[in-house]
Design a protein that fits this description.
- The protein is an alpha/beta fold.
- Helices cover 29% and strands 16% of the residues.
- The chain has ten helices and ten strands.
Length: 316
């Protein structure tokens, strides 16, 4: 097992916050300490069809986050920190448990602030026989240098390209540098794995799939994000247009996003995607809080290989 290097955690620079905290002794901006914190793992049937397939994606939900999204649907784990700390060998065992349960992949949800710990767990799991594709399911708010340390361990990058404009990123996620940071991160992801590749069963084996969540009024300018992807990475870039926004966490403090996305707003973005001709997936409009996974408030060992609660994403 590769040990967690002192210089990765002693003065943490893993994410763009670069807070410099000694995470061996205290928690960083992200809420993370010396060990990876996990809330829930399960066979999840609500990811894109190329990930969920018929048996489910083996999702592992990490606690903490480097963003501060005021509308976060997973705020109980991302910002309240619900989760139990796991050593790399325990995390590797979870990955192997999901594989034994029939998962099509190991899907790491918001893992970026635990990159050294996850990297060590992946190396252990691979050494113990894990052969499934590994999905890095992140906010795209990441340092290219941190991502580069995952080369050869991650097969599929699933970034959520959240903002194309500085004003929205600053107002809703306290990250005015998000557009520039995410573009650099996605370029590094694409360098490592290229365009999305499917096997003969239609399941993702390798490559990049970019998610884009439409906010009310398209305040995050998903249309501009789509333009950037098409211009930089080309017409083979797979995207997943998401309509599952609902006001959560602190969204009520921001009247312009304290409502669902309208059919007109969503269809305008959908038509823009169709005009660009990018392949991928388009989620049906509509969401509800009941579709958010049932995160646990307690910390401590807990296994839950249950079907997820999110709706399937139909192909475009």
């Amino acid at each position: 097992m590769r040990p967690i290097p002192d210089d990765d955690l002693a003065s943490c620079r893993l994410c763009p916050r670069r807070c410099g905290v000694d995470r061996r002794r205290k928690r960083g901006f992200c809420g993370g300490g010396a060990l990876a914190a996990v809330n829930l793992w399960q066979l999840h049937h609500g990811e894109e069809p190329v990930l969920s397939g018929g048996q489910g994606s083996g999702t592992i939900f990490f606690a903490g986050c480097s963003l501060r999204c005021v509308y976060c649907q997973n705020y109980r784990i991302s910002q309240l920190g619900w989760g139990a700390e796991r050593r790399p060998e325990e995390l590797a065992a979870i990955m192997l448990e999901l594989a034994a349960a029939g998962a099509h992949n190991v899907n790491l949800v918001t893992p970026s602030h635990f990159t050294p710990q996850v990297r060590a767990a992946l190396q252990l799991a691979r050494a113990r026989g894990l052969t499934l594709p590994v999905v890095w399911n992140s906010s795209a708010y990441e340092e290219p240098a941190t991502l580069s340390s995952l080369e050869g361990l991650v097969d599929i990058y699933l970034p959520d390209l959240r903002y194309a404009v500085v004003a929205a990123a600053s107002r809703y996620s306290a990250a005015g540098d998000y557009p520039a940071v995410a573009q650099r991160a996605i370029r590094e992801m694409h360098r490592q794995v290229g365009h999305l590749q499917l096997d003969d069963q239609g399941l993702a084996r390798r490559g990049l799939l970019c998610r884009l969540l439409v906010l009310p009024g398209n305040v995050n300018r998903v249309d501009l994000a789509l333009d950037w992807l098409a211009d930089l990475l080309g017409p083979r870039t797979h995207v997943s247009l998401m309509a599952q926004y609902y006001p959560a966490h602190q969204a009520a403090r921001f009247p312009e996003i304290d409502r669902p996305v309208t059919e007109t707003e969503y269809h305008l973005v959908q038509r823009h995607l169709e005009a660009l001709g990018l392949p991928g997936f388009v989620q049906d409009l509509g969401s509800r809080p009941q579709w958010t996974p049932d995160f646990r408030p307690q910390v401590g060992p807990a296994s839950s290989l249950n079907p997820g609660h999110l709706p399937s994403l139909p192909t475009a």
